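Priority: medium. Attachment 1 of 2:
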């Protein structure tokens, strides 16, 4: 049980590093044509880039199913890893798609100071400054700090983030 919990937390944290690497090395390189839809104004509810979520969903669902359907230590650890990947994906969706890109209302998370900072950092990524940094989401403010983007981040914090009245449909 404790191993499952630790692996859930570890997988969720590890996903931020995977996401940052994949965003820089894959989405802004060989998969750029697919990811490009995310950097343009969206027509309709979905964009081609949304299909990339399946890349993380497949292993998460597989690990969860294996862990749920089997007994023992290894299946329990697999379940923990799948749960961590899933929790990261849910947090990413609410902050990235909801708070940053206003695809749906996010309620009170729009008022959490650190998440507003994360959202402001991600918007700087879309401005093509600092060679595209930040590529991660939740550690985006730290990435900007490392490349001298703290001043721009503070200025960007003044923008208004999502509430239910300004959803882009």
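Attachment 2 of 2:
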């Amino acid at each position: 049980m404790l191993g499952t919990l630790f692996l859930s937390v570890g997988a969720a944290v590890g996903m931020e590093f995977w996401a940052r690497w994949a965003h820089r090395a894959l989405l802004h390189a060989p998969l750029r044509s697919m990811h490009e839809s995310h950097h343009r104004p969206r027509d309709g509810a979905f964009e081609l880039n949304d299909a990339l979520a399946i890349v993380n969903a497949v292993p998460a669902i597989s690990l969860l199913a294996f862990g749920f359907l089997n007994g023992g230590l290894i299946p329990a650890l697999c379940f923990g890893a799948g749960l961590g990947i899933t929790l990261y994906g849910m947090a990413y969706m609410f902050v990235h798609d909801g708070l940053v890109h206003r695809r749906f209302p996010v309620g009170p998370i729009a008022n959490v100071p650190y998440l507003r900072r994360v959202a402001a950092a991600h918007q700087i990524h879309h401005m093509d400054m600092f060679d595209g940094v930040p590529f991660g989401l939740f550690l985006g403010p730290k990435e900007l700090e490392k490349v001298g983007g703290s001043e721009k981040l503070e200025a960007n914090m003044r923008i208004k983030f999502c509430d239910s009245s300004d959803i882009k449909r």
